[in-house]
Amino acid sequence: MLNVTSLSKAYRKKVVLEQISFSVQPGEIIGLVGENGAGKSTLLNILATLQRPTNGSIYLQEKSYKDEKQSIRKAIGYVPQDIAIWEEFTVEENMIFFEKLAWKKRGNEALRQLCLDMSLDKWKEPVKTLSGGMKRKLNLAISLIHDPTLLLLDEPTVGIDLKSRKEIGAYLQELASAHEKMILYTSHDMDEIIDLCDRIICIGDDPFYEEILINSGKAILSF
Ligand SMILES: Nc1ncnc2c1ncn2[C@@H]1O[C@H](COP(=O)(O)OP(=O)(O)OP(=O)(O)O)[C@@H](O)[C@H]1O
Ligand SMILES: [Mg+2]
Fold first, then answer.
1. pLDDT tens-digit map of 28-44
2. Secondary element (H or E) of residue 63
3. Are 4 and 58 in contact (CB under 8 A)?
4. Residue nearest atom 13 of ligand 1, based on CA coordinates
5. If you take atom 9 of ligand 1, which residue's CA is the nearest one?
6. CATH superfamily assigned to domain 2-75+149-222
7. CA distances, 200 to each of 22, 24, 109, 210 (Å)
8. Protein residue whose Cα sits closest to atom 26 of ligand 1
9. Which residue has the higher pLDDT, 208 or 38?
10. What pLDDT digit, counting tens, does each position of 39-61 carry?
11. Cβ < 6 Å from ligand 1: which residues?
């Protein structure tokens, strides 16, 4: 379980997140929505241990973010909003490179299967020759190499075609339900969020998102 309690974040005097509390159970997919600048990426960065909150506490499976950062990192898969892969390497080389950094090894066949699970059937092609959507698929596959318990996905499907998005969505739902993963997911595509997520967190002052989600039948938390 992930427990976030009274989390706040300010950049100098600018308060971005204020008193956010929620928990995520194994098997749940949580959507994060809000206008540009609302603080979605900031929250995911903090949960990915890349930034520190100004206040508040976070526990992942009863481990404190403050005291057990190294061990928590092993349980986290993170897809940043900006694509982070090696352009000069092939898909295969990228997967092998990131597997070397990962604490859990998979072997080549499983790495290739992970790409296929993300609807990416390129393997020997240099990344620089791939389309934007294909690069996102590779970023997603990389985040899954070490079989993380908590997956933090920051707009992972921007530019990915609808068919692949549906396939990836189905794969993530299977990961959550059959393998008890916890997934936090941001997207500006409300249909995707409603389709994919069990609960939705709205961040920011603008009631717009809450209003359009109200008829979705999903549980909504607002901060
Ligand atoms: N390193 C930083 N230093 C100062 N301010 C920052 C920093 N990172 C983010 N911010 C500010 O914090 C606010 C939240 O940014 P964040 O990137 O979390 O928003 P977001 O909800 O992810 O937006 P988007 O939908 O555009 O991705 C913005 O006002 C942004 O300018
Ligand atoms: Mg963002």
1. 999 999 999 999 999 99
2. strand 63-64
3. yes
4. 37
5. 42
6. P-loop containing nucleotide triphosphate hydrolases (3.40.50.300)
7. 11, 11, 35, 9
8. 36
9. 38
10. 999 999 999 999 999 999 999 99
11. 11, 16, 34, 36-42, 81
